[in-house]
C-alpha cells in the first residue's frame, strides 16, 4: 500500500482535534435542566483566538463552540490601578489574604474605607455575555479559559457548558471576578466544568430568575494563595440567590473551600435546590448556609473533613438524617431518599419535608457509600 504523507497529516490533525462530525455535547442534562439542547446540531466551530471565541459566544446564532486549547484573556483589556480596601478578614501574615476591589461600592463605607492600592486585570471583572442556544465544549483537558468568566443573563437561555476549565480571575482580590454568572435565564447545564483561582464566586445565580439549572460532574477547586480565611481555602464558592430557581447539583466535587459551598436563598420564592451525590472535602469553614426563601433536599452526599456542614437554615432543609426519615420521600417522589455520609465532619440535620413534592427532577441517586469513588473518577475536565 502506497504511503501518503499528506493524508497522514490530515488524519493526525483530525485525531488530535476530534472529527468535526463526531464533536458535540456528550450525554443529556439530568435534573431540572433536562430539556437543555444548547447549540443542538449546529456545525462545530473552533475559535482561533479570544476575539473569535467572544464573537461566537455573543452572536445570535446557535453554536457548538469547541475549545481545543487555552484562551488567555489576561491583559486583553488592560490593567487597572486604583484605591481598594482591606476587610477585617485580611489579617493574614504576608500576602496570604484577600484585599478588595471596590465592586458594587463594597469598599465605600466607614467600615472598609478606600485606603489601599489595588492593581488588577480588567478582563476578569466582567464575564463574556453568552447568548442563547450555545454549546461550549472542551476537547480532552485542553479547553481552558484563563482570566475571564462567563455571564449568561438578560433573558439568554438554553446554554450548555461542558468540559472546560475557567481559571485565574484576579484571585488575590474580593470582587476580582466570577467564573460563571446566571441572571434572568433558563435551561442552563454546567457539566464537567472546573473552576479554580477565582476572585469572587465560582458559580452564582443572581437576584432575578435563573429558572432551571443543572450543575453536574463539576469541580469547584478552592485551593488558593489568597484566602479570606487565611488558610489557603477560598470562601466565596457557590451562591444561589435567584427567584423561583430550580437547581440540581449532581455528582460535583467541592473541595478546599471555607464557606458558601453553597449559600442558598433568594427573593420571592427563592431557590429550590436538590443537592444529590456530591462530595465535599476539606472545608475549613461551612458548606451549606441556607437563608430566606430557600428549600433544600440534600441526599446521598458525602462530607469529609467539613468543619461545619450547615451554618444556618435547618428549617428549610431536609437532610435525610436517619433511615426512618428516608421513607418520607416515597409519597412525594415515588422512592426513598438516600442518607448522607460523613467522615470527620459536623452535624447536618434538617427535617423539613413540606416541599419534597417540588423536588421531582427525575434524578435517581446512588447510595452515599459509592459517591466518593464515583465523583473522584468523573468530576471535572478530561473525564468525559
UniProtKB/TrEMBL annotation:
EC top class named in words: lyase
Matches recorded under Gene3D superfamilies: Single-stranded right-handed beta-helix, Pectin lyase-like (2.160.20.10)
Pfam families named among the record's database cross-references: Pectate_lyase_4
SMART domains: Amb_all
InterPro entries: Pec_lyase, Pectin_lyas_fold, Pectin_lyase_fold/virulence, PEL
Alphabetized UniProt keyword annotations: Carbohydrate metabolism, Disulfide bond, Glycoprotein, Lyase, Polysaccharide degradation, Secreted, Signal
EC number: 4.2.2.10
Keyword field contains Transmembrane helix: no
Biological process (GO), any one: polysaccharide catabolic process
Listed GO MF terms: pectate lyase activity; pectin lyase activity
Gene Ontology cellular component list: extracellular region
UniProt-annotated location(s): Secreted
Annotated signal peptide: 1-22
PANTHER family tied to this protein: PECTATE LYASE 18-RELATED, PECTIN LYASE F-RELATED
Family that this chain belongs to: Belongs to the polysaccharide lyase 1 family.
Descriptive protein name: pectin lyase
Lineage of origin: Eukaryota, Fungi, Dikarya, Ascomycota, Pezizomycotina
